[in-house]
Design brief:
This protein is an alpha+beta fold. It has helices at about 20-25, 30-40, 50-55, 100-110, 160-165, 180-190, 195-205, 210-225, 235-250, 255-270, 285-295, 310-320; strands spanning about 15, 60, 65-70, 80, 85, 115-120, 125-130, 145-150, 155-160, 300, 305-310. It has 12 helices and 11 strands. Pfam families: SUKH_6 (PF14568).
């Protein structure tokens, strides 16, 4: 008879308590019905050790958040980092079946369909930790791997099973990363990196020469908030979506949301290094901003094309040039 999962391992000290974890990750303890529903939704059987960990706390932030590697990734030469585990559930946005859960990473970020993406990383979506079922099948015991979007979705093996992965986590102090230096590098990027060619062109067409500096100030404030440059669903990110839309719609008609989404990567998100960029993007964040703007009357149709309403345009410009 095999030992129960995590025998002799102190799960009570595994989790780091925080308001953010409670607001974004932690679900009620998973019931058999919820577990079955999540497995049916994802198409894979969860490892017994995953269920056991989530019964100690259903999602959240670990105290030990680094796992050693034998090969370099986009994150570091000798380890990967995990910011949070996705809970078993549907309600919290980052849960396995939440709106930003495992399926979201495949549908919106292009991650390969190898299993279940359970571990969020500090890169804000540009690398993930997953349960890899390719060798064992949907009902088997999956390995744990790191998937690196910024390296053409390279897959790095981490552990033969989930319990081994959890037991192998170490504290970030082992690697002595300097968050202040990382922030300094991110701020230098948003302050001085050249705009993408298309964004440069759109700024040149805009009648107020202060626009490039206003965009950089906005990106700088956003970076100081997060510690890195990435766009999500926060107020400053949405202001930057609006600013990019304003510049694009000033230069050419925008007939639909799909047209804006098609143009968007050339403006900022996927511009190649060393241009001003976030490294990647999730279309849902931009699409949600567009849909919310339409619903609120901030985006309106004029002669068959979408524009910011006069009130929204005025408010945006005031905010950009006041920051």
């Amino acid at each position: 008879m095999s030992a129960p999962p995590f025998e002799g391992f102190d799960l009570h000290t595994f989790w780091d308590d925080s308001d953010y974890a409670r607001q974004e990750y932690i679900e009620p303890p998973p019931t058999p019905a919820v577990i079955a529903a999540v497995e049916a939704e994802l198409g894979y059987q969860l490892p017994a050790s995953y269920v056991a960990l989530m019964r100690s706390q259903n999602g959240g932030i670990p105290v030990n958040d680094c796992f050693p590697t034998q090969q370099a990734t986009s994150w570091a030469d000798d380890h990967v980092a995990i910011t949070a585990f996705k809970g078993i559930g549907f309600d919290q946005p980052w849960s396995l079946c939440g709106r930003l859960g495992s399926v979201f990473k495949q549908d919106q970020w292009g991650y390969p369909d190898i299993g279940i993406y359970f571990g969020d990383c500090p890169s804000a979506g540009h690398d993930m930790i997953a349960l890899d079922y390719r060798a064992c099948g949907p009902q088997g015991e999956p390995a744990v791997v790191h998937v690196d979007q910024d390296n053409d979705y390279a897959i790095t093996p981490l552990a033969p099973d989930f319990e081994t992965f959890v037991r192998g986590l170490v504290h970030e102090s082992v690697y002595e990363e300097d968050p202040d230096e990382m922030l300094r590098e991110a701020l230098a990027h948003v302050r001085y990196a050249p705009f993408s060619p298309r964004l440069q062109h759109l700024c040149a067409l805009w009648p107020d020469a202060r626009m490039p500096a206003a965009l950089r100030r906005l990106a700088e404030a956003l970076t100081e908030d997060k510690g890195y440059f990435a766009l999500h669903a926060d107020a400053r990110s949405e202001r930057l979506y609006a600013a990019q839309f304003l510049l694009l719609s000033h230069a050419q008609p925008v007939a639909s949301q799909a047209e804006f989404l098609q143009a968007y990567p050339d403006l900022i998100a996927m511009a190649s290094s060393p241009h001003w960029r976030t490294g990647g993007w999730a279309p849902d964040f931009v699409a949600d901003w567009f849909s919310a703007g339409v619903a609120a009357g901030q985006l309106v149709q004029v002669e068959g094309h979408w524009q910011l309403s006069e009130a929204a345009r005025t408010a945006l410009l005031q905010a950009l040039f006041a920051d």
